[in-house]
Amino acid sequence: MKDVADKIADVVHAGPAGGPEEGVPGKPAIASPPLVEPVHPVEPLPPKADQSGPETVSPTGQPTGAEQARMAQSGAYLTTAQGVRLPDTDHSLKAGPRGPVLLQDHHLREKLMHFDHERIPERVVHARGAAAHGVFQSYGTAQGVSKAAFLAQDVETPVFVRFSTVLGSRGSADTVRDTRGFATKFYTEEGVFDLVGNNIPVFFIQDAIKFPDIIHAGKPHPDREIPQAQSAHDTFWDFVSLHTEATHHTLWNMSDRGIPRSYRMMEGFGVHTFRLVNAEGATTLVKFHWKPKLGVHSLVWEEAQIIAGVDPDFHRRDLFDAIESGAFPQWELGIQTFPDTADQMFEGIDLLDPTKIVPEELAPVKPVGLLTLNANPSNFFAEAEQVAFHTGHLVPGIDATDDPLLAGRNFSYLDTQFTRLGGPNFPQLPINRTHAPVNDMLRDGMHQTAVHRGVAPYKPNSLDGGCPFFAGADTGAFIEVPVDVPPGRKVREAPASFGDHFSQSRMFWLSMTPVEREHIIAAYTFELGKCYEQAVKERTLAVLANIDPELCAQVAAGLGLPVPAATEPLADTRPSPALSQVGRTWPLDGRVIGIVTDGAVDMTGVREVREAVLDAGMVPLVVAPAGGVLAADGDPVTVQRTFATARSVEFDALVFAGLPAAGADAHGARDAKAGAPAPTVGDPRVLALLTEAYRHGKALAGWGGAEALFEAAGISAEEPGVIVTDDARGLPQLLELLSAHRVWERFPAAM
Fold it and tell me: Is 453 annotated as a binding residue?
């Protein structure tokens, strides 16, 4: 695989000369368009280099050998759905230019009919998502515990991964506080395996029968259909304050984990405990983990709110742009393994309880393979929208356990696909097709695209020669583990071990650094402050009192309410350092650096910084008063953002080349961000850019007069994360700051 820096440099320097955005990830098409509409017929343009589609297999899993282009539309001329060429698509067939539209207009009928039906029902949950293609390469380290073929040494398996939020509609914003989905479809040689996980390792509920309740509580209020894509409202907090098994998940959501920096910097978890089976038939219980190579990082709350307004597509744009620039996101798949004992417990933790984790100090996560996302979808609807995941899509070597939440998901996922995708043949959609041969005896139904042969879709038969035949364990059959079922009465109960709702919540709280605790306090205070009902706020404070008295007291102070006493003894638990996001350093692949200049000061230094950013595997974006090209001397420098279009939230760090002069549009009538009266130093939008970035803990650097800009913003060169030099040589210090994600010293904690 090509080095990340080389890939980014290729993108920045490649392609025909286009416009001012040339070379920046996000270019819409493979070639820049001409100024006038083309009139000479040509075949459809190929996709961009970063785009791919589903593998070309048949509806029954047979490799076709066809190029992916064969799955796309072709031909230089506009046609009907039946391939009949059309001379016009701008005018209905009428009885004269001003006459009535004629019923015989078959093109009008077909075009409107398809348009009227081109939307399918969005997912009830996880409607807002983005996805990408990739490959999973196994290390072979799981072979001792699982016979799954895709986990064998050096096996490469195509994958499709979809990230999502839970509560919002398809049109909601990316950066809301919410749980994120992390669903991976492995196209293995033994069939499809779906690992349908989240970025939080625990769930709100222990039994799937409660799933409609938590989602109904979290969704917008049914009378007004507000608020959208968030939990800061009465129905959510009413439910979770009464249903205290939700406490652990809620605490994770109120932490920085609820607002990830990007999908590329987000952990993934299988949530449930699964059962692995090896070649000898021995079983092991397991929890799955995705560990991002870039580390686990988050937004700060104000940053998330600003982004929701200025770029609601922030997370999907970040994912797609990183892949296009060659900064391919990577995660290691890891497993925590536990003895498959009769009680399915480990160190006193019930492994069937999806509201509990096993701390990594008790069971280390063992890496078993590397996931790399290396291609964007070529059609979002056909791939990201029509992909259908299902927790019951398992392969030999991986089996389910008696987790009651998992059991319900195994029922629910099929039902939702029938509704969304129009019938039982959704596995035949190209993105869902298995890469293993299919002979399922399932016939007909809506959207059947396979052309089945034979006359005997039943067993036993002789008319089709007995085919298909049963497989045995020696020929790769999926055989459920023959687990003993304990005798007992039919009951609607939970085991006593499911009754502990606070010990792991307290462990999570104690594992946070002071700044992370401050963010949790702020999140609870904000969310509860959005509720109307005092009883809901007071009840939630009573829950927090059972986690930690300081957490409860600080939130109560923010709400102006008395501090309740705990109703249960505080759990005696030790912190788990693996739960904190702060204190380590990480790679910088794909980070975005803003270089702010007006083109009048040291363009040689601007070029040097830009090249150094590229060499470090990051993306440089030049910000100037106006678009176009800066070419004071030497090679021209393309402007990617202007003072009007830039906002601090899209950058991981800012570098200021001198004191940029004010732009010609720096007045309130043209751009409200410019404000009034005019500032004494520079452009007010540059000051806003600087102060926002400082407030959000981002690294800042400058030279050639930039110190005056910092002083105008009230920022001293002596403060943490601020680098002021005489020339453009401060980048190594900047990279060191960036590797920690933020300048955490700027967030003093009260506690």
Answer: no
Can you point out the beta strands (E) in 40-177? 51-52, 129-138, 156-165
413 annotated as ligand-binding: yes
Determine the length of the chain. Answer: 751
187 is in an annotated binding site: no
Q: Which two tokens stand for residue 412?
A: 């629910």
Residues whose CB falls within 8 Å of the CB of residue 453, separated by 6 or more in sequence, listed in order? none
Contact 657, 702 (CB under 8 A): yes
Among residues 107, 133, 198, 297, which one is catalytic? 198
* Domain count within the chain: 3
The Cα–Cα gap between 109 and 93 comes to: 11
Which DSSP helix (H) or strand (E) runs through 382?
none
Residue 198 among the catalytic residues: yes
DSSP 511: H
Does a structural domain hold residue 283?
Answer: yes
Q: Which residues of 650-681 are buried (b: 16+ CB within 10 A; e: fewer)?
A: bbbbbbbbbbbebbebbeeeebebbeeeebeb
pLDDT for the residue 579: 97
Give the count of beta carbons closer than 10 Å to the beta carbon of residue 154: 9
In the residue annotation, 297 being an active-site residue is answered as: no
Marked catalytic residue, from 126, 133, 233, 393:
126
Whether residue 670 is contained in a domain is answered as yes
Q: How far is CA 144 from CA 137, 153, 270, 280, 540, in A?
A: 17, 11, 20, 9, 46
Structural domain boundaries, residue 666: 592-746
565 plus 634 within the same structural domain: no
Query: Do residue 618 and residue 726 come from a single domain?
Result: yes
What Rg value do the Cα atoms of the chain yield, rounded?
A: 28
221 and 350 co-located in one domain: yes
The rounded average pLDDT for each run of 10 residues, N- to C-terminus, in the chain (751 residues) is 57 44 74 86 87 90 86 83 86 88 87 85 95 98 97 98 97 97 97 97 95 94 93 96 97 98 98 97 97 98 96 97 96 98 95 97 98 97 96 95 92 88 92 93 91 90 90 90 84 91 98 97 98 97 98 98 97 96 94 94 90 93 94 85 95 94 87 70 90 96 92 92 88 91 87 55
